[in-house]
Amino acid sequence: MAATPARVNELRALREQLQTRYAALKAAGLTLNMARGKPAANQLDLSKELLSLPGASDYTASNKEDCRNYGNLQGIPEARELFAPVLGVSADNVVIGDNSSLALMHDCIAFALLKGTADGAAWQPSATTFLCPVPGYDRHFAICEEFGIKLIPVTLNDDGPDMDQVEQLVANDPSIKGMWCVPKYSNPTGAIYSDAVIERLARMKTAAGDFRLFWDNAYAIHHLNGEAATIANIVELCAKHGNPNRAYVFASTSKVTLAGAGVAMFGSSPANVKWLLARMNQRTIGSDKVNQLRHVRFLRDQDGLKALMKQHAAILKPKFDKVVEVFQKELGEWGVATWTQPTGGYFISLDVPDGLARRVVQLAKEAGIVLTPAGATFPLGQDPRDRNIRIAPSFPGLEEITKAAEGVSLCVLLAVAEK
Amino acid sequence: MAATPARVNELRALREQLQTRYAALKAAGLTLNMARGKPAANQLDLSKELLSLPGASDYTASNKEDCRNYGNLQGIPEARELFAPVLGVSADNVVIGDNSSLALMHDCIAFALLKGTADGAAWQPSATTFLCPVPGYDRHFAICEEFGIKLIPVTLNDDGPDMDQVEQLVANDPSIKGMWCVPKYSNPTGAIYSDAVIERLARMKTAAGDFRLFWDNAYAIHHLNGEAATIANIVELCAKHGNPNRAYVFASTSKVTLAGAGVAMFGSSPANVKWLLARMNQRTIGSDKVNQLRHVRFLRDQDGLKALMKQHAAILKPKFDKVVEVFQKELGEWGVATWTQPTGGYFISLDVPDGLARRVVQLAKEAGIVLTPAGATFPLGQDPRDRNIRIAPSFPGLEEITKAAEGVSLCVLLAVAEK
Q1: Which residue among B44, B70, B103 sits closest to A259, beta carbon to beta carbon?
Q2: Does B46 touch chain A (CB under 8 A)?
Q3: Which of A128, A149, B99, B123 could form a disulfide linkage to A144, CB 3.0–4.6 angstroms apart?
Q4: In this predicted complex, what is the ipTM?
């Protein structure tokens, strides 16, 4: 949204009126939650068939393997084939995990710290740094914080991270071993990395020979507008530029089928796949192959995936539209906030005047509207300008979303007026 | 089996005859596998209902949670209640994981190396040692080998590890941070830890204040003879002796329901549960709750578990009996081998004369009978006496088991005669 001249003084004059409206909001006793990117129950209903699949006599994979028994660390062939296009690699270079792609990311970092990567020795936590485009995803940051890995924020623009910043940092600091990227419909801004940015990420010179892009393509097929955004293929570009092992690609069906009972996946170069399997081999005999089969039976093929994602979009888009509509109506004329209008993904990013994000979230909470904590989109939960708020419109119903967006808008105006 | 005087010279005299029989065995072109403790297909069939559970409209846990969605790192209450008695802790102190208890063990070690335990700082791999009763389970050893953790073998007797050895080692060496234990129907000997041994493990003084028993109760309910062996409660005894956080207890339904698609579980003290959840919280939003619900719906309660395990025993016991019967018939009179007769679990442990285990496994392999590699039951795959062979009778059918046991017996006799 383009910035409008801020009318702060006028808002201050309306302070009492805003306080009266806020008192009424509190009195309404709302209990709304827009804190996390959880699918709504009717989205989960789209996959209800999964709950009785694969059926009592259907347990044999295409390679004749009994999915009920032990074995096959990499995942059954038909599951790897189904998800290979989502990752942009061949089925040979896919590993299917259990339900959480975050777990695969965590384990890739834990393994690098304990054992090193395919290109180098164990990372020393005290000499390991990750770049994180901000605003970004708090659970990415939390993994690094858990292990004492330093995080350097870089600016996330509408076309991806500020590559001038990134190139300069990675070229000169050998402690920079990794970078978090949500390349499509970024959490929370909805930014889509441009081909030029992706090419620069693949090509850039890094002081660390074992630098890794943690390419969390969580929203690879999560379009809101019917039209799929396509992004450049990071694994192919890394190979083209002589950095074949640079990108670890992650995805999952958490926001495709069942958020808590889907399958996660990893795609990368042959050397990285070999490395991951060698590490996983000490950890488990294999992931849940019945759940892999269940997903293949339900999703069938790329057309099946696309059809399901259209149904999700039909549920989600009105919610996103409603938030944007309410923000425009309630906040647009005041020029005190900007927000994103993503074409996919799960979040809207709201920027309020510097120093007010915590206050807005606090006001909303007191009125029964739970938002993601202010600061969560920055490392250590500290937004240096205290201005960014992540809005997660997926879980509540449309009527609740309307109330919540109106409530948040009022909280923004009141916070400005109070100041 | 009691030892019989060895009749090695007589066997040598029969060498040519044994070679002729072995040539015939090879000519038969067998392809039998007794290498791993995999359930047979008809055991997996016992849980076929799982493949269409929980059903399209059944996804709500007892706490009203939608099992399809994100959340609940610890596991749904009814799953924790169902498995609490298996672990010997209250449901509050159970964590349900995904399908692999090995993964929970691996992660407990990885977390200790990266973050420390509830009782101390991060373990340094170069200054971390585990005790391992031998013969033992190769995948336990492999986790330690992966991370550069030193393994010290201790003797496993019929009533558990040699506690004089264990007590002396842990009292004097602060690098000893852990010990692998399969307390019931041990892999591979079938040994059951006596109450006296368990009490000493709970009570013993350890130089390391953050020493942990990795209590892999993999065969907690896996009785072969109808009668459940009961062992002392390690978590309670550790608490009684002032070492409340000493034991991590692990189990899974891998050999109860579906080997590749079951649920794994962890039980311990409140402090250890809190510690594990704090670590897991960076890794995942939660394990697969639909699979937890599926298991609760299928297994129902303790009686349901017991009834299912009886059906497993009905399939497994004839296989174990057959191996022992063939060994007795073919090997008994020669006094060159001893074997265990377990009352539960998944393995029979066969000891041949020193220096011959590798040769026996090699001969068997050439005749189409795949056994667990000789040495696998010792750290680094090196059996110092080269005498122990793990026999896994669960997977092949009864007719194949008979042929395999006869083949292995012939290989033992030939190996002795060759020497």
Answers
A1: B70
A2: no
A3: A149
A4: 0.97
